[in-house]
Structure formats: structure tokens, C-alpha cells
Amino acid sequence: MRFPNFVAPRKESGASLPRGPWFRLLRELCALRALCVKFFPFFQLLTFNFQPSSRSAASLFALCLTLSPAAQSQVPSGRDVVKPEIYVSLDPAARGSSFQIAVVMKIRSGFHVNAREKSEDYLIATDLKAALPAGFNSGEVSYPKGKLEKFTFSKIRLNVYQGNVILRMPVTALENAPLGEQHIPLKLRYQACSSELCLPPVTVTLDATLNVAASASAAKPVHAELFGKQ
Prior knowledge:
Mean pLDDT: 78
Helix content: 10-25%
Order of helices and strands: HHHHEEEEEEEEEEEEH
Number of helices: 5
Shape: elongated
Largest sheet: 4 strands, antiparallel
Strand order of the largest sheet: 1-3-9-6
């Protein structure tokens, strides 16, 4: 959808600008156009397949109107909607031992994120990656099954995560893993949506902290509520 190129009148030297209702309308239209341009990539990332039409154009224009500065302050960011927490199954972990990193995604009530197995190609799937330091190897992340839910903006049911979900990554500390406190950087990517709109996808940088001991007898299982008996 294209918006007219409204250009605010420039103030000439020694001239005064009109301050009547038409000037105020023009100023508001300029601000509206700038706001729509700013948020246009956001509309391309909605969970529905946006197709230009007179109806969708009107909806987009109406949504731009709702995204006034006052309305924007009430729209949360994806970082606010999902609160991830990081846990490690061994503390300390021993050289040569295998353990798990769990990322618990706490999703705000009324919102959901697309599951790992997304329902449509254009959806943004939940994704967890690690930048492993020297001395560590990892396996494939274990993602939970999503739940098929129906939303007004989609013709089909979508596979989503709601509430609290746990992503698990298996990691091995090699025989040459450095001792002491270690940090494993993680990146969690997801897109949060409500029943009415989707927020832009975000990539959150996380940090899994653990201690590495030289002796296998020093390894200590923790967080049995997440990892069970080890």
C-alpha cells in the first residue's frame, strides 16, 4: 500500500505559516505517514498473509491510526511478553560429563509464540542457538510440542506455545574444558502474538553460567524439578 507523499510546508524567511485547521490536518497526516512507514515492516511480519486490497488497505490505515504515540505506549515489546529463564542440570559439571541447559520461556497470559514446528512457511518459528566456547560440544535442541489453536486472523489452526514452555539443549564438557566458572552464550529467537496482533520478532541474548570441575565425583545434579532424576 502506498501513502501520498505529504510534505509539510517550509517556513520562508520573514513569512509565517498558517495555523488553521488545514495546517493542523496536514501536520497530522505527515506524522501519520511517517508512523506507517516506520511500522510497515512490522505488518509484513504479522502471522496472517497480508494481501493488498481495498479492505486490507483500510485496515492498515485504521491500524496506523491506533498506533499513535499514546497507543504505542500501550503496545508491549516481544521482550516484555516473554521472560526467559536459564537453568543448567549440573553445578558443577565435570570434565567429560554431559548435562543440559534448559531455557524456560514464560509467556504472558493472552499471548503466544509460534512453535518450533510452525504451521505456515511464513511464520517465525521459535529457535534456540548456542555459541559454544572451546571445550564444549552440543546436540540438537529438544523443543516441546505446540498446541493447535484457532485465531481470528488465520483460516487454519496454528501451532503455538502458551504459558510456560521448556527448551532443552544437551551439552558435553570435553576433557579439555576450562575449569571454574564458564559462560555459554545463547540466542533465543521468537515472535510473540496476541489474538489480534503480532509483535515484531526478537532475538534475545542469554547466558548460561556453570562451573566445571576436574573430577567426575564433584558433579552435582541440580534443578530436579526441570531435569528429573539424573
